Amino acid sequence: MRFRKLAGALLVLAGIASGQDLPPEVLLLSRIKTHMREELAHLPNYTCLETIARYHKAAGHPLPFQGELRPLDTVRLEIVYSNREEWYGSPGDRNLSTKNPLEFIGSGMIGNGVFALTLSNILEGATFIYWGEDPSSGRTTVRYDFHLPRLLKGLEISIAGGVGTVGEEGSLWADPQSLDLVRLEARAEDIPPFLPLVEASTKVSYARMRIGVHDVLLAQQGELHMLETSGVESYDDLQFTHCRAFSARSAISFGEEPAEPSKALPPDQPTGQAVPAFLPVTVQLATPITDKDAVGTLIEGKVSGDVVHKRKIVIPSGSVVRGRIRRLERWQESRSGDFIVGLEFTEVEVNGGPLRFYADLLRIDRNPGIRPTLSERVPVRDGRGGVRTGQETITLPELPGVASFFVSGTTFTIPRGFRMVWRTRGLIR
């Protein structure tokens, strides 16, 4: 079956030349590419907080850790997308002037282009082959495999043993109705012999976000993996949160000539007072959430109880907290049909104006069907070759302003009034 699909897709040029009707999968690919080009072309200038959890394995690391990736550090950067370029800086810094995020780390792996540039290169330079429908992501998608030659739009990789350009091949998944890209996976191919690299891969998931008055499709989560011939292995998990449009208050310097006042504009940050750090804030959900909702759906909550600092109310009770559904998917590894839900809150309305909501989740309402961790009984082999039953606890990554938890059941409703307790953290560093 798969070879028939491949053959049909490879006859695209013949169909065009002879004037025959194109296969449906080719027409669909054309619509997806046109849609995504328009999405990229109309992206507003915006910025997001990038949180990178980095893991590393050194060459020849002694047992028992040989072969295991160990946590290295967590890096947070402010990333700006402006005029089809990416710029980086420390969170809250108003001088985002660096194109290479490598300048913010001392060692280990970090990459750029995951935000938007990788997708643009693939759409413009790759050749595609139809694979078929794929329900593996929990929704109906179509999958296309692609190949991007090294000499056309090569990916540059720089490691300790050298610098070289590689080609890319992989797959993309798109919603056939909305034409939105859902997931992209790419791996290095045609690696030059002088580059001491065994493999390198990228995975990116996309979701709808609200940027000012625009509803846009952005990278939400990414993964980078690299294995060198020396045995050094690196893995980065990237999460993009707190995305927002620029305001017109003053200019960000990109290290260009200072004579031109504003090639790009700074993030829309509140001037004057900011919410002090380390204050507890209870938020009650004002928008009920069900398993039928889509990722990117806008949600609201309300602050329960005045938030007081030095005998002054800094967030009045009833203030509206705004955000979106960041994650809603059936967890494929669950034996009991659990969902993973992530709610991202980005701003709170105070005195008629929005303040950015930077806070860490402390706890959620007690509910037998909603829990921050999942505990399952799994078979475990003992040292004598037998099998016993053990307990495995699964936790979800912590992100600023994001409440992530498991919800059990084949369907669910998180009711209005569901409470989450947060602690403000001020400016994220």
**Radius of gyration (Å):** 23 Å
Number of strands: 26
Low-confidence spans: pLDDT under 50, at least 5 residues? 1-19, 62-66, 248-273
Mean pLDDT: 77
> How much of the residues is beta strand, in percent?
over 45%
Task: Compose a concise summary of this entry.
By secondary structure, the chain is mainly β.
Can you characterise this structure?
This protein starts with a helix and ends in a 5-residue tail after the last strand. The strands form five sheets. Strands 1, 2, 3, 4, 5, 6, 7, 8, 9, 10 and 11 form an eleven-stranded antiparallel sheet that branches. The model is unreliable at 1-19, 62-66 and 248-273 (pLDDT under 50). It is mainly beta and 429 residues long. A hairpin with a 7-residue loop joins strand 8 and strand 9 (197-211). The relative contact order is 0.12. The protein has helices spanning 2-10, 12-18, 24-41, 117-125, 150-153; strands at 46-57, 70-82, 85-89, 127-134, 141-148, 155-159, 162-174, 181-189, 197-211, 214-228, 233-245, 280-285, 289-290, 298-303, 307-309, 312-315, 320-330, 339-350, 353-356, 359-364, 370-371, 373-381, 387-395, 402-407, 413-414, 419-424. The protein is globular.
Outline the secondary-structure elements.
Blueprint: H1 2-10, H2 12-18, H3 24-41, E1 46-57, E2 70-82, E3 85-89, H4 117-125, E4 127-134, E5 141-148, H5 150-153, E6 155-159, E7 162-174, E8 181-189, E9 197-211, E10 214-228, E11 233-245, E12 280-285, E13 289-290, E14 298-303, E15 307-309, E16 312-315, E17 320-330, E18 339-350, E19 353-356, E20 359-364, E21 370-371, E22 373-381, E23 387-395, E24 402-407, E25 413-414, E26 419-424
Antiparallel strand pairs: 1-2, 1-11, 2-3, 4-5, 5-7, 6-7, 7-8, 8-9, 9-10, 10-11, 12-14, 12-26, 13-25, 14-17, 15-16, 17-18, 18-19, 18-24, 20-26, 21-24, 22-23
